[in-house]
């Protein structure tokens, strides 16, 4: 018996040649990125208009200039205003009887304080102040800032970015509820209620542990924080745990202006606004709705 392997009549071809034959027979096979799990070939059925807003719009351009033009369209054309949240109520329609929850906001001596221009600051913005603050409780640099623009010291100061120089309101101009029209849509920004340090059940809606059957003093505890060997003997980053809850800025978009009262300085918006009573609320024209709507 010979130690040589038995010869076979079957022909063996290189792997590269086999793949080329398969690709020629089936053009949908993608050779790039298969090893790493990402798809680098052309998507089947993809059209240039699939990545655009509509057929009437041009194809998106991938350039810094085009990106800046798209960014400018996401900014409002005029400045916003400051208000104080007074609470929530409801308005009933006399004809249909529909109940609409709404939030009452009050504007107190809202005034334009200063500007920020593209040449000096790199963008256009309007600094708006609200309320009144005693000069003894204001620092000297801030007092000089108000005095330079001939504006009384304000309790709240916020900045509103605008699209271009045409949106820079005149310094010292008073802004009241008539700045917004009934029926238009606005966006609000305010700090939500701060809950302090909270546990896992309230912060992340954890189920908790049993109330009895051997459980002792861990009824509201979160339990295990992670595995040992499977997670590398560590707690993975981003693990939901007890911690500080609330107190963050929340933006609510597309709130409809139901009513305005210039004499009382009140503006009524449909729906809720984040934050407790007495908090500062920034109001600006909605970026996803036209002024006409």
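-> sequence recovered:
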């Amino acid at each position: 018996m010979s130690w040589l392997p038995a010869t076979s009549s079957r022909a063996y071809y290189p792997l590269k040649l086999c793949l080329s034959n398969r690709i020629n027979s089936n053009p949908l096979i993608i050779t790039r990125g298969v090893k790493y799990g990402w798809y680098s070939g052309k998507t089947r059925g993809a059209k240039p208009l699939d990545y655009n807003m509509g057929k009437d719009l041009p194809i998106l351009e991938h350039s810094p200039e085009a990106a800046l033009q798209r960014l400018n369209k996401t900014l409002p054309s005029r400045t916003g205003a400051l208000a104080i949240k007074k609470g929530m109520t409801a308005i009933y329609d006399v004809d249909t009887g529909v109940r609409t929850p709404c939030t009452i906001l009050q504007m107190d001596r809202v005034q334009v304080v200063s500007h920020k221009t593209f040449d000096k600051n790199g963008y256009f913005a309007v600094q708006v102040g609200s309320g009144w603050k005693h000069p003894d409780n204001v620092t000297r640099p801030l007092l000089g800032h108000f005095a330079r623009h001939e504006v009384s010291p304000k309790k709240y100061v916020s900045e509103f970015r605008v699209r271009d120089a045409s949106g820079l309101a005149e310094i010292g101009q008073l802004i009241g509820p008539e700045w917004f029209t009934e029926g238009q849509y606005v966006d609000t920004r305010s700090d939500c209620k701060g809950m302090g340090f909270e546990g896992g059940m309230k912060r992340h809606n954890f189920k908790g542990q049993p109330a009895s059957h051997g459980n002792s003093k861990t009824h509201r505890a979160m339990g295990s924080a992670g595995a040992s060997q499977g997670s590398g003997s560590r707690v993975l980053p981003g693990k939901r745990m007890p911690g500080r809850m609330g107190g963050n800025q929340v933006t609510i978009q597309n709130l409809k202006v139901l009513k305005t009262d210039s004499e009382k300085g009140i503006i009524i918006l449909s729906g809720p606004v984040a934050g407790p009573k007495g908090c500062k609320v920034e109001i600006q024209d909605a970026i996803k709705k036209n002024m006409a709507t």
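The CA atoms of residues 201 and 207 lie 6 Å apart.
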